[in-house]
Amino acid sequence: MPEQTLPLTIFHMLERNLNKKIRVILDPSYGFEGTLMAVTREPAGIWLSDAEAITMRATIAQPIPQVASREERSEIFIHLNSAQRIEVLHSSSRH
């Protein structure tokens, strides 16, 4: 079975967000957060630095999944075929 190619717009979006903090969801309850450091096309993937593995949970009272736990992972490569969702995280300025 040949590997599917990803549209170039995905790579453009990722490259625009280099050095920003992102969250990559691999399945509904597991993912990674870190700083996007590099985007590769062959293999299609991203490199995160200062990464953390995150576990997400949803409840009946809070149906939107929230981060329940974190574990430091340093640097990590994530193949884009395994990513369900990628979110750019914006720092909240609370004074």
Describe the protein's architecture and organization:
- The structure is a single chain.
- The protein has 95 residues and is mainly β.
- The protein is 9% helix and 54% strand.
- It has one helix and five strands.
- It has one helix spanning 8-16; strands at residues 21-27, 30-41, 44-57, 66-79, 85-88.
- It has a five-stranded antiparallel sheet.
- A hairpin with a 2-residue loop joins strand 2 (30-41) and strand 3.
- The longest helix is centred in the N-terminal third of the chain and has 9 residues, at 8-16.
- It is globular and about 40 Å long.
- It starts with 7 loop residues before the first helix and ends in a 7-residue tail after the last strand.
Low-pLDDT segments: none
Strand content: over 45%
Question: How many β-strand runs?
Answer: 5
How far is the N terminus from the C terminus?
A: 53 Å
In one word, what is the shape? Answer: globular
Strand order of the largest sheet: 4-3-2-1-5
What is the N-to-C order of secondary-structure elements (H for helix, E for strand)? Answer: HEEEEE
Number of separate helices: 1
Using the CA coordinates, give the radius of gyration: 14 Å
The residue-averaged pLDDT reads 89
Q: What characterizes the major β-sheet?
A: 5 strands, antiparallel
Helix/strand class? mainly beta
Helix-residue proportion: under 10%
Quick recap:
By secondary structure, the protein is mainly beta.
Q: Topology, pairings included?
A:
Blueprint: H1 8-16, E1 21-27, E2 30-41, E3 44-57, E4 66-79, E5 85-88
Antiparallel strand pairs: 1-2, 1-5, 2-3, 3-4
